[in-house]
Design goal:
By secondary structure, the chain is an alpha+beta fold. Helices cover 47% and strands 18% of the residues. The protein starts with a strand and ends with a strand.
């Protein structure tokens, strides 16, 4: 099995000053204790994404500990920084995504971008997609993040997202494309994603009924499992296993959110293939 993280490295010339928070108060000590616990979970989070118990637990706790995850973006260990970013992207917390965009802009030298592409798309993600389109299929963005970006643009459904999706489609038609991106474009053309998914409490079934990213011929091979639900119950992580047999298996992670009366997609990611 090969894990697909969609990791993309950037080389930038921007950097920022580190900010140190005061410590010593009981409240601060409690915050530090929570951060230690979240860091420990990140440290035990394996690179194998399907069935990842630590990811499921971090998803459940994440929004309640979002400030800790943002702080851990500046951890001394590369693995902790990378996994904190991945969990923030799974959660799609808008304030944390803004903090993540600011963190990207503070980096100097090469840094990694990994994890889902949640909606609503951040200004940083939209800018990255625009730059990826400009670089064309030879660029690393198409290989690492193109498929997830196509799905995110289709789910966003804003005028800017539609324009970018048209640009990707037109560019691919002119010069050819990465296979994964071409398949994603064909998927949303033949099965446009629904923006409202219903109110059912059976979340795995909600995803099954609306799994636009699974082709008709693959549906008989697909299973859907609820991995985790946030503590407030408004977000859920579903794992989709498309098992066609040996060396022909794919795993997807789907995050859905119910901000009001209906579920909606937050992100769809291909996380591993065999």
């Amino acid at each position: 099995m090969r894990t697909v993280l969609g990791i993309l490295c950037f080389l930038v010339a921007l950097c920022g000053d580190a900010v140190c928070a005061p410590s010593g108060s009981p409240r601060r000590k409690a915050e530090n204790s929570g951060r230690v616990a979240i860091r420990a979970l990140l440290g035990r989070m394996p690179s194998r994404i399907p069935g990842n118990a630590q990811l499921a637990r971090l998803f459940r706790l994440g929004d309640s500990n979002i400030d800790d995850l943002v702080e851990l973006l500046d951890d001394d260990e590369r693995g902790i920084r990378l996994r904190a970013q991945i969990v923030i992207r799974y959660l799609g917390n808008e304030a944390a995504m803004r903090s993540l965009a600011e963190w990207y802009l503070r980096q100097s030298g090469e840094f990694e971008v990994a994890g889902p592409v949640p909606v609503p798309l951040s200004s940083w993600d939209l800018g990255t997609i625009e730059r990826g389109i400009a670089d064309g299929p030879a660029g690393s963005w198409w290989r690492a993040r193109g498929e997830a970006a196509v799905w995110a643009l289709a789910l966003e459904n804003s005028p800017r997202a539609k324009a970018l999706l048209n640009a990707i489609t037109n560019h691919a038609a002119r010069v050819g494309d990465e296979e994964a991106v071409a398949q994603a474009l064909e998927t949303i053309r033949t099965h446009p994603p629904r923006l409202e998914l219903g109110e059912s409490t059976d979340i795995a079934s909600v995803v099954r009924e609306n799994a636009f990213f699974v082709s008709e011929r693959d549906r008989k091979y697909a299973s859907f499992r609820l991995m985790a639900r946030s503590t407030d119950g408004r977000k859920a992580l579903v794992e989709v296993d498309v098992d066609r047999g040996p060396l022909a298996e794919e795993w997807y992670h789907v995050v859905v959110e119910k901000p009001k009366n209906t579920w909606r997609f937050l992100s769809v990611s291909l996380v591993a293939i065999s």
